[in-house]
Design a protein that fits this description.
The protein is α/β, with parallel strands linked by helices and about 240 residues long. About 35% of the residues lie in helices and about 30% in strands. A hairpin with a 3-residue loop joins strand 8 and strand 9.
Amino acid sequence: MTSPAFSDKVLPMRILGIETATTTGSVAVMSTDGLIAQYTLNIEVTHSERLMATVDRVLTDARLTLADIDGLAVSIGPGSFTGLRVGLSTVKGLALATNKPVAAVPTLRALAWNSACSARSVCPLLDARKKEVYAALFRFDGKEMAQTMAETAISLEGLAVALKEETVFIGEGARLYRRELTALLGDRALFAPFSVGVPSAASVAELGIAMLAKGEAVDPDSLTPLYIRRPEAEVAWEKKQRSQ
């Protein structure tokens, strides 16, 4: 799967992007001419408390309404189980209310897009806990961003074995485990700036524009999180049932 760079062949459109995979949530309006507005918040408030208010604020400040939006794009994971459910349920509701098409954008792809023009492979990392990270690997060839390793939950040691060349790490996992990655990979470990190290609703929306232009809209009812690993509550419940 590849992600095309922005093209003048894409018909003009405006997309509302929503990103709730981490505590740093964001909402953006992106057009084929560029970013119109984006709000990013990294505060101790749940996405369910702030998301719709942020959507309203972004649209109001951009002097737009939902009727002016041509489509929706949402980050589908991996990431916070609760955050992803809030984001996807919000987009489902908006899509059903407005009949707008929806693009389901993998979170690690959107995170890698923040550094898409790197000459080196880009490895987005999110903390998966249990001494693991959610990781994938992407390579930009000047025209497209190709995925060269699928999304996975992996230990830092396992990731180091899989990487054979200089790699740019990006994301909260890169920030949290910078020391360990440097110890494992030495000079092969490079790190993107913190300013591009969080999943961005603008990147979600930009990738969403390309996906919708290619006819890759999804049925809102089929929207499901890309968890990679099952929620702890679900695993605990099954263990409890088996023990009864």
